Amino acid sequence: MNLEIRQIRAGEGLRLRTLRLHALADAPTAFGSTLAREEAFPESVWHERAAGGAEGGDRITFIAEQDGRWVGLVTGLAEDPEDPKQSGPVLVGMFVDGTERRHGVGAMLVEGVAAWARARGAARPLAHPRGAANGPRPDVR
């Protein structure tokens, strides 16, 4: 099996939608949104999210892809939109499909965002939003 962690591509909005909706259905308490809310988003929202994540400016999205199948995703934001006083990068929207959990996929996704944050000159480690049900281990940087 071939696992690749890569940055999302601008044209992958509908694949992003599929995995995100699966994530919301699989782990509804782990996210700050709901399946019903995001199912109602027009396609343009998904295309915008993919394009923004591919651009890598103020946000980045990484995909875990195994033999062509998306099995995980994570987004990094340059700043926490919930807490503008807390300067620095934040990790959001982390998900690994149940079939791939406990195999290091999540750690590889986090490292992708951490490397992006370091390349941007982040002065502090990644933060995970408060209230997230399944935040990263305390040693995640």
How would you portray this structure in words?
By secondary structure, the protein is α+β, with helices and mostly antiparallel strands. The chain has a single domain (3-119), classed as Gcn5-related N-acetyltransferase (GNAT) (Aminopeptidase), CATH 3.40.630.30. The protein is built from four helices and four strands; from the N terminus they run E-H-H-H-E-E-E-H. The chain has a four-stranded antiparallel beta sheet, sandwiched between helices. Strand 2 and strand 3 (69-77) form a beta hairpin. Helix 1 (13-26) packs across helix 3 (43-55). The radius of gyration is 14 Å and the shape is globular.
The number of distinct β-strands equals 4
Helix content: 25-40%
Assigned CATH architecture: 3-Layer(aba) Sandwich
What fraction of the residues are assigned to beta strands by DSSP? 15-25%
Rg (CA only): 14 Å
- Gap from first CA to last CA: 28 Å
List the helices and strands and how they pair.
Blueprint: E1 3-7, H1 13-26, H2 35-39, H3 43-55, E2 59-66, E3 69-77, E4 90-96, H4 105-119
Antiparallel strand pairs: 1-2, 2-3, 3-4
Summarize the model shown.
The protein is α+β, with helices and mostly antiparallel strands and 141 residues long. Helix content is 33%, strand content 21%.
